[in-house]
Amino acid sequence: MSSPSAPSPVRSPARARTGVSFAARLAFEDVSHRFTGETAALDRVSLAAEPGEVLCLLGPSGSGKTTLLRIAAGIEVQSAGRVLLNNREIAGPSVFLPPEQRSIGLVFQDFALFPHLTILDNVRFGLTALSREEARREAMVALSRVGLEGYAGAYPHVLSGGEQQRVALARALAPRPAVLLMDEPFSGLDSRLKDAVRAETLAILRQSRATAIIVTHDAEEAMRMADRIALLKDGRLVQAGPAQELYQAPRDLFVAGFFSELNVFEARVAGGWVETPVGRFVAPALEEGAPATVAVRLSDIEVAERTGEVPARVLSRRFLGVVELVEMAIPGAEEPIRARVRFGALPTKARDIWLSVRKSDVLVFERRGESA
Ligand code: ATP
Fold it and tell me: CB–CB of 48/241 below 8 Å?
């Protein structure tokens, strides 16, 4: 926030005092947290959201996403490690900056709007540093940013879920925070509304230039929203990177399984290869004799009526729109093999067919008893 004694020559005083979002870097350094008992909710997590970046915290239920967000906000105090904002410690062994001094905005899953306040007053709520008139003006700016200035005098109950989510976003952005934290912000919306609200939210985040950390358990949502994704499991950071990196070069079967549906086979490395019922694949990174897990994405299997590498018998087909889900039995595999193929690739009555695997996309991991 800029000092009132040094007003900007360009911006209006009201704007200068509310502070344009100068995106900040928020970093977690070796953050661990234990609520009670033996199990750590977070275990030495080191991760940073870079200035202006949209970082998604992704992981199954109980993996520690919300806890990490609450620690960033200052609602929860970590058991060990540090949180830094622009390289300045805001929570650590000797420092604890309270939430209201962190320049961090929050959007919760349930929007948490005050039902007895108008939309305008809900948005104005956090602008206590401004005069009443300036706060009103800034709240209107924030509301028009989310396209809801027309509802300023209405009460939350008249708005749809998507609109309430936008009000919550406007309220969080109105003080122009350096970092915006969003906990499952779209989970209360029905699926048709979700796409539009996600796209709008992303556009607003880009415009506001705030660094954003979004919690989700939905891999597709993370891929749509994030510049980078951090995948958590059992309180540990498993892998962080752009969506494409996590999808194409997953560190283990857990990461691969989080981003795509897989057919999984167990094998053992022999002469640099692994042998499975759907074909032989190279395993250059693994030692001779090592137990391996071979993962083939449903979308990496092609089917044809007359030619292919492995004979297959169709067990079931399910129409999904552009694609269909085909379940097949093949020699040597106890479980059915599943494929997502372009609708129309197989004649309706096809029964004995052929499948082929796109070899370059097959994933081979060393087997360490992990579960998908
Ligand atoms: P979800 O997607 O279900 O919200 P999450 O990944 O956000 O899950 P957290 O809510 O951070 O996970 O929880 C991590 C672990 O900490 C879980 O085992 C959870 O039961 C535990 N936990 C969270 N909050 C508390 C609390 N207030 N007291 C005790 N244990 C807690």
Answer: no
Other beta carbons less than 10 A from residue 64's beta carbon: 24
Strand partners for 364: 294
Compute the distance from residue 171 Cα to the ligand 1 centre, in Å: 26
Going by C-alpha positions, the residue among 365, 368, 370, 371 that lies closest to residue 286 is: 365
Q: CA of 100: how far to CAs of 79, 214, 261, in Å?
A: 21, 20, 42
Please name each of the domains of the chain with its CATH number. Answer: 26-248 (3.40.50.300), 253-366 (2.40.50.140)
CB of 41 within 6 A of ligand 1: the answer is yes
Q: What distance in Å separates the CA atoms of residue 295 and residue 282, rounded to the nearest whole number?
A: 13
Substitution site in 42, 57, 63, 187 for ligand 1 pocket (most atoms within 8 Å of beta carbon): 63
CB-side neighbour CA atoms (13 Å) of 118: 14
pLDDT in tens, 203-234: 888 888 889 999 999 999 999 999 999 999 99
Q: Which residue do the tokens 């019922």 mark?
A: 277
Q: Which residue's C-alpha comes closest to atom 16 of ligand 1?
A: 41
What pTM did the predictor assign? 0.86
255 CA from centroid of ligand 1 (Å): 20
Q: In degrees, to the nearest 5, what angle opens at C-alpha 115 toward C-alphas 110 and 120? A: 100
Beta carbons within 8 Å of 371's beta carbon, 6+ residues apart: 253, 254
Residue 245: its pLDDT value, please?
A: 96
Closest listed residue to residue 102, CA positions, set 7, 211, 231: 211
